[in-house]
Design goal:
Structural class: alpha/beta
CATH class of the largest domain: Alpha Beta
Strand content: 5-15%
Number of strands: 7
CATH architecture of the largest domain: Alpha-Beta Barrel
Oligomer: single chain
Order of helices and strands: EHHEHEHHEHEHEHEHHHHHH
Largest sheet: 7 strands, parallel
Shape: globular
EC number: 1.3.1.89
Helix content: 40-55%
Cofactor: FMN
Family: Belongs to the Dus family. Dus3 subfamily.
Bound molecules: flavin mononucleotide
Keywords: Flavoprotein, FMN, Metal-binding, mRNA processing, NAD, NADP, Oxidoreductase, Repeat, tRNA processing, Zinc, Zinc-finger
Distance between the termini: 25 Å
CATH superfamily of the largest domain: Aldolase class I
Radius of gyration: 21 Å
Organism: Mytilus coruscus
């Protein structure tokens, strides 16, 4: 996600977010903003200057700072402005425009079902619904029945669902025999980056701690390639690694689980892994994440402080 105003101001760090890696065979750019002029100009720049397959409008971000400016989830409550933004962005885009939103703003007052037929009529190509309201954040499970009702009302525009998927079985039970055409996976991809292989191959992969460590190594190598291997590049890579480790430790190895599959909100009792590395990778302790970072990036500099940015790593 990039902020439309930061893009228009030419902020280098924001433009860096829009860079497509050669390994990405499908690449969408999500933008966040609250006004049709900035969002449309931004869409035009993406259309004319970049190689993207689609543009996604963020109508789901719950963060106060964004919401109070009328951006993210706030757009769901302003139908006229929403329509103006969509129609205006559509007029400059040659690639599909999609929308990501929530069930609504307030708990117990879902509004997505009123919005999806409108979005279809405004010619949006696809909508993703995260099955929780702004107020709910990550409390309560995502409401996939409601997502399915929205998918029925949106036809023939496809609706994707989003929320709590951590295994191919989670996905199957939400997609099979429903009108939901696909899904997006967020925390599941951070906790278990191999989830896409599991879905493709319809199996639970009892991945070894060495295989997981190889993935961490390759993340670090990509980080150093991107940010450079000087002191600043190393420390930027370390911060991104630590953010990721604050999710990654939540994976419970298949061979250790009492019953498969793991559910995303399942907090396991403290367990000992099948070797020291597996135990280390399961640690919820920030000091252990620093230790893992030191194994690959060298000693943490004096005075280094780390607190995970995203509260979503909190369990329900
Ligand atoms: C670290 C993190 C960053 C996120 N950033 C975005 C974002 O930029 N845009 C967005 O639409 N949703 C974002 N989300 C929300 C997810 O896309 C998703 O809607 C939510 O986490 C529920 O799906 P999940 O249960 O698969 O995690 C983010 C979530 C997490 C955990």
């Amino acid at each position: 996600m990039a902020m439309a105003t930061n893009i228009l101001q030419g902020q280098m760090s924001e433009w860096a977010l829009l860079k497509r890696h050669k390994s990405e065979d499908l690449f969408g750019i999500q933008i966040c903003g609250g006004w049709s002029d900035t969002l449309t100009r931004c869409a035009q720049l993406i259309n004319d200057e970049l190689v993207a397959d689609f543009v996604d409008l963020n109508c789901g971000c719950p963060i106060d700072l964004i919401y109070k400016k009328g951006e993210g989830c706030a757009l769901m409550g302003k139908t006229n402005k929403f329509e103006q933004i969509i129609r205006s962005m559509k007029s400059v885009l040659e690639i599909p425009l999609t929308v990501k939103m929530r069930t609504g703003i307030m708990d117990n007052k879902s509004i997505a079902h009123h919005l999806v037929p409108k979005l279809r009529d405004w010619d949006v190509s696809m909508v993703t619904i995260h099955g929780r309201s702004r107020e709910q954040r990550y409390t309560k499970s995502a409401d996939w029945d409601y997502i399915d009702q929205c998918a029925e009302l949106a036809k023939p525009m496809p609706v994707f669902g989003n929320g709590d998927i951590l295994s191919y079985e989670d996905l199957d039970c939400h997609i099979k025999e429903t009108e939901v055409k696909g899904c997006m996976i967020a925390r599941g991809a951070l906790i278990k980056p191999w989830i896409f292989t599991e879905i493709k191959e319809q199996r639970h992969w009892d991945i070894s701690s060495n295989e997981r460590f190889e993935m961490i190594k390759s993340f670090v190598n990509n980080g150093l390639e991107h940010w450079g291997s000087d002191q600043q590049g190393v420390e930027t890579t370390r911060r991104f690694l630590l953010e990721w480790l604050s999710f990654l430790y939540r994976y419970i190895p298949v061979g250790v689980l009492e019953s498969v599959p793991q559910k995303i909100n399942q907090r396991p009792p403290k367990y000992i892994g099948r070797n020291d590395l597996e135990t280390l990778l399961s640690s919820p302790n920030c000091g252990d994440w620093l230790k893992i970072s030191e194994m690959l990036l060298g000693p943490v500099p004096d005075g280094f402080n780390f607190l995970p940015k995203h509260k979503a790593n909190a369990y329900m």
